[in-house]
Design a protein that fits this description.
By secondary structure, this protein is an alpha/beta fold. The chain contains nine helices and 14 strands. It folds into two domains: 181 residues, 3-Layer(aba) Sandwich (Rossmann fold); 70 residues, no CATH class. The chain is 33% helix and 26% strand. The two termini are 38 Å apart.
């Protein structure tokens, strides 16, 4: 297979592909020529230390901070992502760490907040309840007793489930999860990670942002590592992928033969600053 054919297959199989993306805020160059790919049926963990550029990368994908340069492809087609509405039209949804749920509303009301289904000028409660049940069932969610439960009555894991269901309800293709297990116990973490795996098994492209390397190794198919604004590695997770390997990439930008070229490292092993 030629290089052009391989590139063509990559473009066709990628739900989202970023190439050479840069972002600056005044004099600060936050993203440096970032290449990032989201594949269908795959969980890609996005990891990096605080300040590595993960949040800016996600906000660029979501249209909150449009890129200064670089290109985006959605299922092989060149696109621009100039605002969150455009990102949503392309099937990109972000579940933020704060979940953005209204505790005084029930599950159905949260799922359809701002996107209510109407019939003859009135809310179509039956249609929304049916769609909510179908979405939760398709995701394999069995811990919620009723779609009319108020969010205030739900556990942390159940709230995370509702936030994820809200993201996939609108024919999403790419779902980005920002630290979905950060405030959860062991049992609830297991439930959320199982849900993440089921989303990928349904053909979605899932991006998991996490500082928990155990979660990453348990559920991710690939790991993309950010370091000082650069994406320094995109590696497949295998049985031999170790926590130590990932931590070294996070802290120094290189581990063994993976990561920043040796000439880009200072004598103490740290990358040259942004």
């Amino acid at each position: 297979m030629t290089g052009d054919e391989e590139a063509s297959m990559k473009e066709a199989s990628a739900l989202l592909e970023m190439s050479g993306v840069n972002k600056t805020f005044g004099p600060v160059h936050v993203l440096h020529d970032v290449d990032f790919v989201v594949r269908p049926g795959s969980v890609t963990a996005l990891i990096g230390d605080n300040g590595a550029g993960k949040s800016t990368l996600v906000k660029t994908i979501a249209g909150i901070h449009p890129a200064d340069s670089g290109s985006f492809r959605s299922e092989g087609q060149l696109v621009s992502i100039e605002d969150p509405r455009r990102a949503s039209e392309l099937g990109i949804e972000v579940v933020h760490q704060d979940l953005a749920l209204c505790e005084n509303l029930d599950i159905v009301q949260n799922l359809f907040l701002g996107r209510e289904i109407t019939k003859r000028g009135l809310l179509d409660e039956r249609a929304m309840e049916s769609a909510a049940r179908t979405t939760l069932t398709d995701l394999g969610v069995r811990t919620v007793k009723s779609v009319r439960q108020s969010v205030a009555s739900l556990s942390g894991g159940q709230r995370q489930t509702v936030a994820i269901a809200k993201a996939v309800l609108w024919n999403s293709r790419v779902v980005i999860l920002d630290e979905p297990t950060a405030a959860l116990g062991v049992a609830q973490t297991a439930q959320v990670l199982s849900l993440v795996r089921r989303m990928a098994d349904q053909g979605l492209g899932v991006v998991l942002i996490s500082h928990n390397m155990n979660d990453v190794l348990q559920v991710a198919d690939r790991v993309a590592v950010m370091y000082l604004g650069r994406l320094v590695a995109d590696v497949k997770v295998t049985s031999e992928t170790s926590r130590e390997f990932l931590v070294e990439l996070i802290t120094s930008g290189r581990s063994g033969g993976v990561g920043l070229p040796a000439e880009d490292l200072e004598p103490n092993g740290n990358g040259i600053g942004v």
